[in-house]
Amino acid sequence: MNKTALITGATSGIGEATAYEFAKQGINLVLCGRRLERLNTIQKALERLTNVHILNFDVRDKDQAFKAIASLPDKFKTIDILINNAGNAHGLDPIESGHVDDWDAMMDINVKGLLYVSKAVIPQMTARRSGHIINIGSSAGKEVYPKGNVYCASKHAVLAITEGMRIDLNAYGIKVGAINPGLVETEFSKVRFKGGTEANAVYTGFKALQAKDVAEVIYFAVSRPPHVNIADVLMFCTAQANSTLVNKSK
Ligand code: NDP
Ligand code: 8X3
Question: Is 54:69 a contact under the CB 8 Å cutoff?
């Protein structure tokens, strides 16, 4: 029987690309996000390839998250693969002038939202003594860059939670890993800069990672044999050396 994957943040970027990559491989999909119209469109497109169920909820709202996941029909109830991808940066400001609403959004979505969804899924994995969780971290979870403060903190937390999950779920044979990309050309910067013009400059002058590049690595991780766990991946585009060095000369 084909596996079932639940992907959060499947309405754009890395999550959407992962849904396409998994669908090509016949993995059944539970796709989550807040933008219902997009979920409907993606479901329609992917149903030609695999079975797709959509869940429309905000990961910040723990009641919504638990209710949505508990509502899964029998055909989609068994989650073999959890991709905790929903998240964004909100703002790029020095700590002294950062906005509390942005801080709340990043901690509530990137950290607490990931925990709520995991809490709703892990019990069935421990009961079955199998499962695979992949958390989408970031290069920002490995180093801090100027004005990155709280976003970097949220992604450092994702890495700590990933390591904690891997330790605590080890006895159950559950695989846990993190995929940590650098700059990926998605809607990420539009969200970070609230649609402002700064967003356009982020990916110009070099070839950034594309969502599909990350999705392919995620599929590589979930398609390893049972004894292999890809624990941690740091991936950059060729032009990027670290969070602050991007070669825009070509
Ligand atoms: P996008 O903005 O394209 O996608 C973000 C996704 O997260 C959307 O599907 C969005 O869906 C979902 N999301 C955001 N907030 C919520 C919420 N409150 N509840 C439910 N879903 C939510 O960005 P990316 O694809 O680039 O980002 C995906 C992940 O990758 C994030 O965790 C990000 O931090 C990480 N990342 C991104 C990098 C980049 O440079 N782009 C680099 C490294 C990591 P909707 O709005 O419909 O709810
Ligand atoms: C996204 C990469 O460098 O914008 O996590 O923080 S960066």
Answer: no
- Return the pLDDT at 247: 98
Best residue for ligand 2 mutational test, from 102, 151, 237 (most atoms within 8 Å of Cβ): 151
Element (H, E) at 53: strand 52-56
* 220 assigned to some structural domain: yes
Task: Please state, in angstroms and rounded to a whole number, the distance separating the CA atoms of residues 80 and 89.
Answer: 28
Tokens 């000369």 correspond to: 249
Share of the chain above pLDDT 90, in %: 98
Q: Domain range holding 141?
A: 4-235
Catalytic site positions: 151, 155
Q: Which two tokens stand for residue 57?
A: 């909820």
β-bridge mates for residue 134, sequence order: 83, 177
Residue 1 has pLDDT above 90, yes or no: no
Kindly state whether residue 136 falls inside one of the protein's structural domains. yes
Query: For residue 205, is it within any domain?
Result: yes
CB of 82 within 8 A of CB of 27? Answer: no
**Domain tally for the chain?**
1
Please name the residue whose Cα sits nearest to atom 10 of ligand 1.
9
